[in-house]
Amino acid sequence: MRVLLAAARLQLATFRRSPDDLMVLLTVPLFTPIFLVIAKHAGRLDLAPYAVLAPGIIAMLSMALNTSGEIIERDRWGGTFELTLATPARLPVIVLGRVATVTLASLLGIAESWLVAYLMFGIAVPVLHPGAFVLTLTATAIATAGTAVVFAAVFVWTRSARTFQNSLSYPLLLLGGALVPVALLPEPLHPISRAVYLSWAADLLRASLAPGPVSALWPRLGIVVGLGAVGYVIGFALLRWVIHRARTTGKVGYA
Amino acid sequence: MSAGRGVAGRRRAAVELAPQRGPQPAAAAGANAVLAAGRRFRNILTVLRFAAATGFADFGTMFTWRSWTIGWLSRVLCQVTFFALIGRLLGAPEAVRYLLIGNAVLIAVLESAFVVASTTWERRAGTLPLLIAAPTSPVLVFCGRSVQWIASGTASASVALFVLSPLFGVALPMPQALVAVPLIGLVSLSAYCLGLVLAGLVLRVMQLRNVVGNVTWMVIALLAGVQVPVTFWPAWVQAASAVLPARNGLAGIRALLDGDGVGAVCSAAGLEALVAVGWLAVAGLIFRHLAEQGRRDGSIEFVD
């Protein structure tokens, strides 16, 4: 637990030094009006909950990709990865502490989006099923952190990590139904989309803003958490492999 | 740029001063002036060519053909699809067409905005003092340094437009729709010129390079007629957005694809070119100020 907290403190200190890490929180206030003006211009303000929710989901995924995904790689560039590996603390725990901090920070994007909608357009989107909303958000954050551990491990593999970082965001947002529900995607994409935790999470979050009852809440929550757990298992296995490879090949840091 | 700095500068000064050495026939003086101007123009092109070569070399280290097509291009196609699908969510085919065209062209702006970040690479590499000490203007170098984004942005935006349109049932009048490609190039160029202005400012606060680049293309996405017509906004916002890249160029592309007259397309393209020239002039002033102030207060060297 002490290692987790120390890792969280380290990540908070990193935020202060690197505004880029929080860049998404600066761009969220622009995504919200973009989506809302499209809905308003089409006379479909009934879709305001979709438009207000989507920037928050974008913030979560983008920070998982761009900030959490770079945690190990930045340590390697900064020359601190060797020291981290030499300490008795386990690397997966450190990564988890930092990734969890990033994910928690990314939740601010949801609050921001609601605030921008209200201040710029006078639109207050009510959360009609607050219990379901909070539970889903918690499950989504847990699953996002698990997925971010995978990103952090995978991006150490390749020197063109940034290319993949830049490339993965929209495919995942599209398959995850961040704004447009999966049902509107072409039929052949549905099975792939359903393997992405975000598609279940986004549907549930939208359902918790809609007037009707939230159907099959617990099974759907279970799927979000389950897919997130798969992320943790894969992520930790990859991290162990990354550590092993770095130690055996002598490529812990960069020359 | 001072002509008296360095060997090349002294040579150039000698060429420029040559006509004043003695009485010469007016025709010979005129010929000398033309030669000198030609030589200066050739030098400018050489600097731009080498700067562009550096940019494309950077691009080559970031992307291979495979990572550009499978990685970057798939992201581009997904991004445009993401926005075009909003039209389907709205249940309005005309919205699908509007969003698809607007967001395809927006890709050119997005990539041009990378100039803000890639300009700072020069400072990070520690070459800025050398550029400022060189007898050529740093403005020229920075103008050519990131043109790879114009080429890549034009290519990816064009692919997005021509590949996704048939998939979403958006009819493009062929072959005249192909004229959209140079128009996208023009939009990319004007966004690049705005990006140069911001790059000149961001060189002093390099931590903000990615934030500024991203906010730039998103503001353009919001106000320049990409998602909703410019007339959606209050008059003062419309007036302010007149200087934004893509606003006129995108209107020209829409006019072209809607089969409007050549006049409408050409006048929109002319206005877009004017916006580009305006931002380029501002960029020139900002880089000159950066160099002069750097010489005065010693802030040329890496300060981040």
Mean pLDDT of chain A: 87
Q: Kindly state the mean pLDDT of chain B as a whole number?
A: 86
* Residues in helices of chain A, as a percent range: over 70%
C-alpha geometry of chain A: globular
Poorly predicted regions of chain A: none
**Strand and helix order of chain A:** HHHHHHHHHHHH
Total count of helical runs of at least 4 residues of chain B: 13
The oligomeric status of these chains comes to: heterodimer
Listing every helix as H and every strand as E from the N terminus to the C terminus, the arrangement of chain B reads HHHHHHHHHHHHH
In terms of DSSP E residues, the strand content of chain B is under 5%
What structural class do helix, strand and pairing data of chain A support? Answer: mainly alpha
* Classification by helices and strands of chain B: mainly alpha
Number of helices of chain A: 12
Largest sheet of chain A: none
Number of strands of chain A: 0
What is the CA-atom radius of gyration of chain A, in angstroms? 19 Å
- How many strands, what sense, and barrel or not for the largest sheet of chain B? none
Radius of gyration of chain B: 22 Å
Strand content of chain A: under 5%
Assign an overall shape of chain B.
globular
Number of domains of chain B: 1
SSE order and pairing:
The complex is a heterodimer of chains A (255) and B (304).
Chain A: H1 2-17, H2 23-41, H3 48-66, H4 71-78, H5 81-86, H6 91-106, H7 108-121, H8 130-157, H9 161-175, H10 190-194, H11 197-207, H12 217-249
Helix pairs in contact in A: 1-6, 2-3, 2-7, 3-6, 3-7, 3-8, 3-9, 3-11, 6-8, 8-9, 8-11, 8-12, 11-12
Chain B: H1 6-17, H2 26-62, H3 65-90, H4 93-112, H5 115-124, H6 128-133, H7 138-145, H8 148-167, H9 180-202, H10 209-223, H11 235-240, H12 247-257, H13 262-297
Helix pairs in contact in B: 2-7, 3-4, 3-8, 4-8, 4-9, 4-10, 5-9, 5-10, 8-9, 9-10, 9-12, 9-13, 12-13
